[in-house]
Write a structure and sequence with these properties.
12 helices, 12 strands, about 350 residues, 7-stranded parallel beta sheet, binds nicotinamide-adenine-dinucleotide, alpha/beta
Length: about 350
């Protein structure tokens, strides 16, 4: 792979950004990697890595420009991960657009400018979301399914995608757009994302903590059959690394959008996986409190995709459903306790 092996990650203080930094640092295929880690909260560099950490507000163009001029020189790749999550951008539309659209455009323009200076289109790897889909949808989403978002978050992601595709078509950047499933189980605290409960109903009970599920009124509610399209963090981050390695000519000629592989589960299956791993006492920690807004947003997301194109590009998929993911998360929690 050509380039100077300097990688800029925006949103590097976040959940996936910090996992990505660690994965790049330990990836045997990139032993000489140098990381530029940026977030509005001071990001942490993985222990022993070659990294600069920068606290910056990406809505401010001069701060964005400076990221491309560190001691490591012009990066060959940007992983653009920063953003305001779904519920956050739904509840605060203008702020959501400022971060999820305007600042992404600013980073994209800087990638274009510095890629031109370096003499090679910069790889621009962008995390989009299944939230670009909404309205009437086919049973299975395919690469040619029209994206008609029904949320501010999904709208913002789609606008970004259109820019990245056009910048790629013009040779301004070498874009790779990854539409992510919902990632579960997410470590850390609950978030403003409408999907937060999808991890919360596993994560909190595994730590003996109460958790609220905004879908259904009890563990027997029919609403728990709500289907969800999910992937584990480990598989997703492995797919982020893979996205950088794919030769440009392997993508469809007309779009750089790829729906990363995921699998279909339901809230009920999640609860069953929790019970299988941690027993009924863990399930008893979930309180079911129907929340119409949250339910409306999550129900508008599709839950079944055709993985064929992504798998043909070499991306990975989780095997075995939720139980191995819950077990892995429990093992991580236990390791952290030691
Ligand atoms: N986690 C999921 O289930 C999921 C699903 C689909 C898509 N995605 C996308 O993946 C990306 C990463 O998701 P995540 O779960 O790690 O989110 P996260 O909220 O943990 O991380 C996002 C980071 O962006 C930073 N940020 C926000 N505004 C900023 C600003 N103005 N300047 C600098 N940094 C700013 C935040 O501080 C945060 O650390 C996002 O683009 C998200 O939309 C995530």
């Amino acid at each position: 792979m050509s380039g100077n092996n300097t990688i800029l990650i925006t949103g590097a203080g976040g959940f996936l950004g910090s996992l990505l930094a660690r994965a790049l640092h330990t990836d045997p295929q990139t032993p000489d990697i140098r990381l530029v880690l940026v977030d509005i909260v001071e990001p942490k560099a993985p222990a022993g890595s070659r990294a600069v950490t920068i606290k910056a507000d990406l809505t401010d163009p001069p701060q964005v420009d400076a990221l491309f001029q560190t001691e490591y020189g012009i990066p060959d790749t940007v992983y653009c991960l920063h953003g305001i999550m779904s519920r956050g951008s739904e509840d605060n539309f203008d702020f959501g657009v400022k971060v999820n659209v305007d600042s992404v455009r600013t980073v994209l323009d800087a990638a274009r400018k510095y890629g031109e200076q370096a003499g090679q289109p910069m790889k621009f790897i962008f995390t989009s979301s299944l939230a670009v889909y909404g309205g009437p949808l086919p049973d299975i989403i395919k690469p040619d399914t029209l994206a008609t978002p029904q949320s501010a978050y999904g709208m913002g992601k789609l606008v970004d995608e259109i820019f990245i595709n056009e910048y790629t078509r013009r040779g301004f950047v070498d874009g790779r757009i990854l539409r992510l499933p919902t990632i579960a189980v997410r470590a850390g605290a609950p978030t403003a994302a409408a999907s937060s409960f999808i991890s919360g109903i596993i994560r909190e009970p595994l730590q003996g903590l109460p958790s609220t599920c905004p879908i259904g009124t009890s563990a027997d509610s029919p609403e728990l059959d709500l289907a969800l399209w999910v992937a584990s963090p480990e598989t997703t981050v492995a797919n982020f690394l893979h996205a950088r390695r794919i030769p440009a000519d392997k993508f469809f000629p007309h779009t750089r959008v790829v729906c990363l592989p995921g699998f279909t589960t339901t809230v009920r299956e999640e609860v069953a996986a929790l019970e299988a791993v941690a027993g009924p006492e863990a399930v008893a920690l979930i309180s079911f409190e129907d929340d119409e807004t949250n339910k409306r947003v999550v129900s508008s997301w599709p839950a079944r995709f055709d993985n064929a194109y992504a798998l043909a590009l070499g991306f990975q998929v989780d095997e075995g459903g939720m139980v191995p993911i819950v077990r892995r998360f429990q093992a991580q929690l236990r390791a952290e306790e030691m």
